[in-house]
Design goal:
The structure is a homotetramer.
Chain A lengths: L1 H6 L6 H4 L4 E5 L2 E4 L4 E4 L2 H4 L8 H12 L12 H15 L7 E3 L5 H16 L3 E5 L8 H5 L4 H5 L8 E4 L13 H8 L8 E6 L2 E2 L5 E2 L2 H14 L2 E5 L23 E4 L12 E4 L19 H14 L4 H23 L6 E5 L2 E5 L3 H13 L2 E2 L1 E3 L5 E4 L7 H19 L2
Parallel strand pairs in A: 3-15, 5-6, 5-7, 7-10, 10-11
Antiparallel strand pairs in A: 1-2, 2-3, 4-12, 8-9, 11-12, 13-14, 14-17, 16-17
Helix pairs in contact in A: 4-11, 5-11, 12-14, 13-14
Chain lengths: ~425, ~425, ~425, ~425
C-alpha cells in the first residue's frame, strides 16, 4: 500500500478507517485483494442503493459497452438518454404527478446543487439562500456555502457568504414552534435577513447525523416557502432513489419542491450521474448557460434506466425498504435500552439509520470494532458522534441480521470496555 | 425526439446544432439511430483523445466489469486505483521528473479546479486569484469565478469575486511587453490589486478560441509567479493527455506548475475522472477536508491505466499528434490564403486547431455546412467566431484528410455564398 | 422653498414631515424663519442631548473661534484635543473604571462603527459579525451590512454579507430562552454559522423601534461573548452620553464591552465628532491604517469637553434623566390604558421613549398631529409604527409637560377619528 | 503629551512626524502651545484651501453662532442650507452649466463616495466598479474597496471585492495607448471583467503621489464611459474647490461627470461637510434610503456659503492659484535640475504639487528637515516617496517664497548628506 501514502494526497479519508485494498464486490459484499469479504453497510455513502455490481444492471451495461453504444456524448441526443428520460417519466414522474423538466448538471451531486442554486438566483434575482444546521450539500464553492460542517467550510479559503443557516427540525427538541425564528425574520422588514431566493433542505440529513425531519415539518417548510414566495430546493442526492422508502424522500410529506437534486444512486451502478429536476416555469436558462463535459454518461443512463425498470415498476422495493428499516429500528431500540447509562439515541427512517453516541470517539470505536468483525460502517454528525447505516436496499435478510448482530457486539464491546 | 423537448431543460446546447439521436460510436465515428455515420472532429470536447470506445480500453473495461471488480468505492484503496497510481508514476510523472501528489477531487474538471483553488487559498491564506481573458475553467461557483465568458458568468446569480483578469498572451498582438501590467500591479503597493494566492492558466485556451500561448510566455508567467511567490495552477483539463503533443501541454515550455488540473481524457474512455496534481509541500489538507462521492470511479481507473500503458509507454502518440497537427496547420494556411478577403486566422497547436472568422455567424455556418456533409465540429471564442477542431489523437490519415476536405468545402460554401 | 425641491436630492426625508424652514434654535425650541417656535422632542435624533445651542457650550465655542484656536488639524496633537482626552479620562472613563484607548475614527457614528468592525476583524482574523434584528448602525457599506432595515439595505447595491442577524431581546416575547439559537449555533460545529469576530449591539434600539434590552439580557450577551471568545461591540452612538440615564447605556448592566462606539451627542453642540473606545489589548493598528480628514474637529473638542465638565462632574443629569423618563413612562401608561382597543405599547428607558401603534400609518398621523400643534417627533421601527421621543436631557419640566399634553391630544385625535 | 500616548490609539499618524501640541492658527500659520509658528504647506490635507480661520468666514461663523442660528438639523430645511444651495447654484453650478442635484451624504468625503457608489449601483443594477491604480477614496468599507493602498486595504479585515483597478494616466509612461486594456476588456465578452456600474477617478491623485492626469486622458475616459454606458464618478474631495485652479479639477478637461464628490474645503473653514452632486436623471433614491446624523451642519453651511461668495464670484482665486502653481513648478524644476543624480521628478498642477524621490525614506527625511525649519509638509505615494505640497490657496507670496526656500534647503540637506 506504499504507493497510496507516497502518491495520494493526505486528504484521503475512508481508507484510513479501512486500511485494506478492495478488489471485487457483489451485492452487499466487498472483497479485499486477499479474498476476505466485508459486509458493506455503507454502500458508497448512498450511491449503491441497488448493491454492488447488481447483476441485472451489469448485464445491460456489458451489452451496451460490447455493442459500442456511445459512451461520452456531452449533452447530445442519444438513444440511451432517450430511454432514460422516457423511463424516468413513465416510472417515476408520471405516476407521482410530478411535472418537472430535467437538467443534466454534471456528473455529481454537487453539480446538481450548483445548478439548482444558480437557477434559483437567476429566476428570482436574489442572491441569498437559506440552509439548515448540519446540512451537507457538497464541496464545490456554491454547494459548500450552504453546507454546515465547519471543517469543510474552513477549506474554502474564501468567506462563504450568501447563506444563512436556520434550525433544522428538532434542533431544539420541540422546545419552540417550528419556523418561529425563520418566519419572524421574513415578516420583519427590519430583521436584517437578506430576502432569500431559495431554501435548500434535505428531508433526512445523512452527513449531518441521520436527522430525519418530521413529515409535518417538511410540509410546514413547503407551505412557508409558498407563502413567502421562496423557491424550495430539495436535495435528494443521498436520500432519494428509495433510501427512505419511497423513490423521493419527500413523498410522504405530500410536498412538491420547486427543484429537486438527484445523484448518487440515480445511476444505479455507481457510475456518476446527476439530475436537477425543475418546475417547467423555472426553465429560463439560455442554451449552454450551464454546461459541462460529463453531463450524462451513456453507460450510466443504461444502468439508471434498467434500475428504474427493475425496481420502480411496482412498490416492492419501497415496501421492503420500509420493513427492513423498521427491523433495524427495533434492533436499535433494543440496543439503546440495553445501555441506559450511555444515553444512546436511535435515529433515522427507512434504510438511513443511526445511533447517536455521547462522543465521536465512541461512535468511531464502534465502527472500528465492526470493521474488525467484517462490517463496513461510517460515522456522521458534526463531531462524528453518530454511527451511520446506509445498507444496500437490496440487502437480504441474512446479511441484514448478520450485520445487526455485529453492530450489537461492537456496541457492547465499546461500551463495556 | 419529442421527449427531449418535453422533458429536457432548455439549457441543452450541443443537440441544437446536431439534431439527430446518436446510438453507437467507434474511433472517430459516431452513428445515429438510423445508422448514418458522422466523422467526429469534436471528440467529447477533448474527453475522447483516444477515440470512441477504443478497443484496447474496451476489453479491459468489460473484463473488469465482468469479473465484478469494485465499481464505486469513494476514496477507499482499491486494486484498480493502485494500478492507476503506479502507472501514472511510471509512465507520466517519473519520466518527466514531476514530483506531484495526487488529489482525486471529484468526477469532473470543475472539481479539479475547485480543489486547486481551495488548496491554493488554504496554503497562502489569500483569497484573490489571477485568471486570464477568455479563460474557461468550469461551471461550479469557484471555477466559474475564474472563467471569462460573460454569458456563463451571468448565470452565477451572485457577483463573481476574488478573481482579476489579466491579458492572455497575444491579447494586444505584441503591442506591449508581456506581463507589463500584471507585474507592475504586483510591484506597486498602491495598485489596488488584492495580493493573489495563485494564477490559473491554460497553456492553450480551447473554449476561449483556440488561443495558444507562446512557450516563452508560459515560461515568463512561471518565472513571474516564482518571483512574486504566487502559486501557478495549470488547468490541463482540456489540453492535457496529449492534446497538443506532449502528455502535459506545458512540457515544451520547460515549466513545473505548482498545481495541475486533469480530467476529460485522463479516464481514457470518456468515463468521468479528474485529478489535481499538487507539489508535495502543498499537501496540507486535513483528511476529508475536501471530499465527494465520485472521487475515483474504478472502471475509469481501469481504462485510464490502460490508456497510459498503451499510449504513453513511448513517444509515438506524441509524435503523430505533432505531425497531424502540422498537417492540419498547413491545410488551414491554404484555406486562409484561399480567402484573403475574409481575414481568416489559423490558430492552435498539436491537435487543438481552429480558424477564426470575422463573426460567430460565419463560423457557425461553416460548422452547419460541415454537419450536412457528415462532420461534427463546434465553435469557440467569446462570440463563437472560431471553428474549432479537437479530433481524436488516434484518428487515421484517411479520416483526417476526409475531414479536412469537408472543412475546405464548408468554408468555401459559406464564404462564396 | 423651491430651491430645495429643485436642487436637493429626493433622498431628503425629515423635511417632508416638517415642511418649514428653520432658522434659530435654543434649548428645546426650534424656530422657523417666520419666528414660529416648535418644541423639539427629536433633538437631532439624539445628537442634541444638551439641547440646541446650549449657552455654556456656546460661550466656550465662540471664545475658541474668536481666539483663532485651531479648527481643523487632522489627527495632530492640539490643546483642545488634550483637554478633551484629559476630561474624558477624568469625568467618564476613570470613575467608571473603564480602561479604554480612544480612536478618532472620523466625524460620524458610521465611522465609529466602521473602525470597530475593521479592528475586530483584524484582531481576530475572522470576517463574520453577529448583529441583531432591527439594529441600526449606519449607512456606509460596513455599517450598513450590520443594519437591519431592508429598505436601507436595499440601497447598498451590492449583497451585504459577513453579517448574520440574531433575535434581539424580547423578539419572541419571552417565548424561548435568551440566546438559545445563538449559543446552539456557536457550539454546534456543523451549524453552518461562520465563526464570528464580534457581536455588535445597541443596549436600546432607537431606530429599530425604541426596543430596550433588559439588563440581564445584556449581561447574558456579554457573558456569552466571553465564553465563546467573541468581541463585544456596543454601539452607543445614539443611546450614549446619558440618553438612558447613565453616561453609557450599558452601565446598569454591569458589563464592559470590548469596543464602544460614540458619536452624536459626544460633541455636545451638534458638531460632528465620533469616538471608538477600545480595550488596550486591541490597539493593534498600524499608524494611519485607519485615517480620515475629519477625525477630531477642534471646536467639537471644545464643546465636548465643556459638556463633560458641566454635566458629568456629578450625577445630577443622570438622576434627572431617570426621573423625567419615569414621568414620560407613567404618562405613556395612561395613554395606553386610555385606548385599550388600540393595543398601544409603551416602550423605552430613560429619555428614549416610544409608543408602538398598530401601524406605521397611525404613528405617522400622531406625529403629523403633533407637528400641527408645534411639537417635533419622529417615528421609528421597521414599519415606522413607533412614535419616538428623544427630547433634550436638559428639557425643563414645563416643556416636558407641554409636550406630553400635545402627545396625549395627538394620540386622541388620531385614535378617535 | 503623555495623555496622548496613554489614551490615544496607536493608529494616530500625523502627530508622529510633528510632535508638538498645536493651539492657534491663522491663514497659513499654525502655532504650537509655546507660540512657535509653523508655515503650513499641508492645509488639512486639502481641507483648508482658504487658510486657517479665514477672517471673512470666521466673522460669519461667529455671527451665526452668536444669534443662535440652528446648529444641527439633520436634513431639515434651514435658512443656512437654503443660502448655501442658492449660492452654490449661483456661483458654481449655474455659470459652469452643470445640471446637478445635491445629495448631503454625511459629514466627510468617504460619505460622499459611499453615496456615489450606492447610487451608481442602484441606477445600473450592477455591482462592479472600476478604480485606478493608486486611487484614494476613503476608509469606510465601500470607499476602501476602491482605494489602492495595500496597507489601508489590509485593515479592512474582509476581502475587498467588486472593484477592479485599471492603470491611471501615465502608469506606463506613455508606453502604451490610453485605455488599451480597459476598453479591450469591455469589448471582449469573454474577458472575465464584471460589467462595471461606474468608473471612479480623481483628476489628480493626491494621496497616490500627486499624479496629475492629462486633460486629454480625462476626456478620453469620459468618452469611453459614455460609449460603454458606464457612469463616471469624479472624486473631487481633495482636488475640488479650486485646488488645481478652477473650482472643479475636471473643468479644463471639458467633461461633465455623472457624479461628483466634494468635501474637505467645501465647508470653507475646516468644518465637516460633504456633497454628492448627481445628474438629475440619477436621482432615484427613496426618501431616507441614504441618511445620517451629520448631513449638513449649519455652521458649515454658513462658512461654505461665505467662501463661495468671497472667492468664487470672480476668477481671481483661480488665476492666482494657477500663477502660484506655476511659480512652485518652476522652483521645483530648478530643484530637480540641481540634483541630476537624484532622479527627482516634479509633479502636479495648480497648488497640488510634489517632488518624487527615489525612496520614501528620502522624501520623509526632507519633510523632517522642513519641519525642523518650521514648515509642515507630508509625503504621499504608495511608498511615501513623494514630498507633497497642498498650501492654502490664499497663501501670500512672501509665505510661498519662504516655504519654497525651506524646501530647497531641506532637499539639499538630505541629498548632500
Amino acid at each position: 500500500m506504499e504507493i497510496f501514502s507516497k502518491l495520494e494526497s493526505e486528504v484521503r479519508s475512508y481508507s484510513r478507517g479501512w486500511p485494506v485494498v478492495f478488489d471485487r464486490a457483489q451485492g452487499s459484499m466487498l472483497y479485499d485483494e486477499n479474498g476476505k469479504g466485508y459486509l458493506d453497510f455503507f454502500a458508497g455513502a448512498g450511491a449503491l442503493n441497488y448493491g454492488h455490481n447488481n447483476p441485472a444492471l451489469k448485464q445491460a451495461l456489458i451489452d451496451y459497452i460490447a455493442r459500442d453504444g456511445v459512451t461520452h456524448a456531452l449533452d447530445m441526443f442519444t438513444v440511451a438518454k432517450r430511454d432514460f428520460l422516457e423511463t424516468l417519466q413513465e416510472k417515476i414522474l408520471g405516476p407521482r404527478e410530478l411535472d418537472y423538466k430535467v437538467v443534466f448538471p454534471g456528473p455529481g451531486g454537487a453539480n446538481a446543487v450548483e445548478a439548482a442554486l444558480k437557477l434559483a438566483r437567476k429566476v428570482t434575482g436574489k442572491e441569498s439562500v437559506i440552509n439548515f444546521t448540519n446540512a451537507f450539500h457538497g464541496m464545490t464553492l456554491g454547494a459548500l456555502s450552504v453546507t454546515g460542517n465547519s471543517m469543510k467550510r474552513g477549506g474554502a479559503g474564501v468567506p462563504l457568504v450568501h447563506a444563512t443557516p436556520m434550525p433544522y427540525d428538532k434542533y431544539f427538541d420541540g422546545a419552540y414552534p417550528d419556523f418561529l425564528y425563520f418566519e419572524r425574520l421574513l415578516e420583519d422588514s427590519g430583521s436584517g435577513l437578506n430576502e432569500p431566493a431559495a431554501v435548500i433542505v434535505e428531508a433526512l440529513q445523512g452527513e449531518g447525523g441521520i436527522n430525519a425531519a418530521r413529515l409535518e415539518w417538511l410540509k410546514g417548510l413547503s407551505d412557508l416557502c409558498e407563502r413567502h414566495n421562496i423557491l424550495l430546493i430539495l436535495d435528494d442526492v443521498q436520500m432519494g432513489c428509495g433510501r427512505t422508502g419511497p423513490f423521493f424522500s419527500f413523498e410522504d410529506a405530500g410536498i412538491k419542491p420547486d427543484i429537486v437534486c438527484l445523484s448518487k444512486s440515480i445511476g444505479g451502478y455507481g457510475l456518476p450521474l446527476a439530475l436537477t429536476l425543475i418546475k417547467p416555469e423555472l426553465d429560463v436558462w439560455e442554451p449552454g448557460e450551464h454546461n459541462g463535459t460529463f453531463r450524462g454518461i451513456n453507460p450510466a443512463f443504461v444502468t439508471a434506466t434498467e434500475a428504474l425498470r427493475v425496481y420502480w415498476s411496482d412498490d416492492k422495493l419501497e415496501q421492503s425498504t420500509r420493513a427492513k428499516g423498521e427491523r433495524i429500528g427495533s434492533v436499535f431500540d433494543e440496543i439503546v435500552q440495553a445501555h441506559p447509562e450511555a444515553n444512546l439515541v436511535a435515529k433515522g427512517r427507512g434504510l438511513a439509520r443511526g445511533i447517536e453516541f455521547a462522543s465521536g470517539e465512541l461512535a468511531g470505536s464502534v465502527c472500528a470494532e465492526a470493521f474488525d468483525r467484517g462490517l463496513l460502517m461510517e460515522t456522521s454528525g458534526p463531531d462524528g458522534e453518530v454511527m451511520k447505516l446506509l445498507p444496500a436496499l437490496t440487502i437480504n435478510d441474512a446479511e441484514l441480521e448478520q450485520g445487526l448482530e455485529i453492530i450489537g457486539e461492537s456496541v457492547r464491546a465499546v461500551l463495556t470496555k
